[in-house]
Design goal:
The protein is mostly helical. About 75% of the residues lie in helices and about 0% in strands. Helix 2 runs antiparallel to helix 3.
């Protein structure tokens, strides 16, 4: 599954030169391990994930701007009803590429957030386990 996602993301990110100016943000280098991390490490991890979230938002906003500019170039002054088949096909291709890139970025972000949230649960439950041991 991970290999499939990586291949799909790579394909989506390289699926055409239309959005070459939007830089795809790298994911966080490391998600803290909730079973061993300190509170400071978890807080730093949260800031890293939040920064990544902001970077993905900026990336998808950039994609939207470039999409709109690319679509505008295909119309060359024509109204939607007057578009040629070629112009419509170009717009559909632009839309398809933008959607693939946007979806790949959002999917990756959701996976990272889910992994971090799982580590938060582990971190929070870690203290509960030791409290139970102390009461015995």
């Amino acid at each position: 599954m991970k290999a499939f996602f990586a291949i799909a993301a790579l394909a989506a990110l390289t699926a055409g030169p239309v959005y070459a100016d939007c830089s795809y943000p790298p994911p966080p280098d490391k998600i803290p391990d909730g079973s061993t991390a300190t509170l400071d490490e978890m807080q730093a991890g949260q800031k890293t994930v939040q920064s990544y979230d902001h970077a993905i938002k900026a990336y998808t906003d950039c994609l939207r701007l470039e999409h709109d500019a690319a679509v505008a170039k295909t119309t060359t002054g024509a109204k939607n009803a007057e578009l040629t088949k070629e112009q419509k096909a170009q717009q559909e291709q632009i839309e398809r590429v933008m959607n693939q890139k946007n979806n790949a970025a959002i999917d990756q972000e959701e996976q990272i957030v889910a992994r971090f949230n799982e580590q938060i649960k582990i971190f929070k439950n870690r203290g509960k386990d030791t409290d139970k041991d102390k009461k015995k």
